[in-house]
Amino acid sequence: MKIAIDCRALRKSPSGIPNYVVSAINSWTTEFPSCNFYLLSNEPFHPELQDSLEKKTNLKIIISPLPILNKISFFWLLFKVNIILKELKPDLYWAPAFLLPPGISNNVKTLVTVHDMVFKQYKNTMSVINRFFFYLLHDRSINNADLLWANSKYTQNGIDHFFPERKCKEVFTGFFINTAIFKPVVLTPTEKQALQLNYNLTEKFIIFVGTLEPRKNLSFLLSLMPELAALGYSLLIIGAKGWGETSIKEIVEAPCFPKERVNFAGFISTNDLVNLYTLASVYISTSVNEGFGMPQLEAMACGCPVISPHNSAMIEVVEGAGETVRTWIKSDWIEVVEKVVENRSKYVKLGFERVRFYERKKVIQDLHHYIQKGF
What we know:
Blueprint: E1 2-6, H1 16-31, E2 36-41, H2 47-52, E3 59-63, H3 73-79, H4 81-88, E4 92-95, E5 109-114, H5 118-121, H6 128-144, E6 147-150, H7 153-162, E7 171-173, H8 189-198, E8 204-209, H9 218-223, H10 225-230, E9 233-238, H11 249-252, E10 262-266, H12 270-279, E11 282-284, H13 294-301, E12 306-309, H14 314-318, E13 323-325, H15 330-342, H16 344-355, H17 360-373
Parallel strand pairs: 1-2, 1-4, 2-3, 4-5, 5-6, 6-7, 8-9, 8-11, 9-10, 11-12, 12-13
């Protein structure tokens, strides 16, 4: 089988979807060496992600720019992908992040991964440009795909609800993280001190991984900080570069806010992220909706306890392994933070047990069998 993959996500800094794509490719090429994989992009991959790809004889990277407007990768998807596919003649084209190119040949089966229903439920939290791209192709891609891969039961239910007339009736559900990367590490006192100094951390600190989009509800987490700082905690925010002109500016710049206890670190190396997960007292998400909860699972895999709201896919990922909070009452959240930190070893053990439910090898094997059934 020849499998072509939209790998534009690998141009960017390592984060949720790029890490997932690399992990899936590494496992898929290993488990099914008789298949040939073609990784398609308009630009070279990020060096860290390029290095993370395992070099296999059944894997080929094809960087094929669009002569005009190449920097806008959406135009590459619209105008260049089908040209590449006509030359390759693959059996399957995988879109790991929602969108299929229009006009793809009927001779090529299509697989679309659906990560959430944000475009249907929370489209106002998306950037204007991404909202426009999704307006053009999102619904069309899901409705027309030959095969669909949902990352959670919650997302699968969303597909059933919003796309009852879709072509593909049977949705494959399964997800994973790369436990070869996200795993506990032993830090020396010197390494621990260096991290604390570099990221301005107290001995007890909370880690959050995500963007500043409203759906992440970072303003609520920040509103907890005056009381948490009084209890000795600092907060490290990974992925968000700063508050700038966003809605959280008023919170951060308020006279009584413990600004010195909050660090917006932006994107960091995967190695630092693993070390910080391991070192953190607790990972907290205050998101109002998630299609899966990849940072939560990454944190658990590294031995970091997790607290999330009791909503969306975070229930199936976190409940029973960490704590899910059913209210938005601040005192309830403070109480849960103290409970989890005081019983940290218990939650670390539960987290490790939960990660085993998301075993990459089995998911990829089941996915491949699902694909074969579709031919």
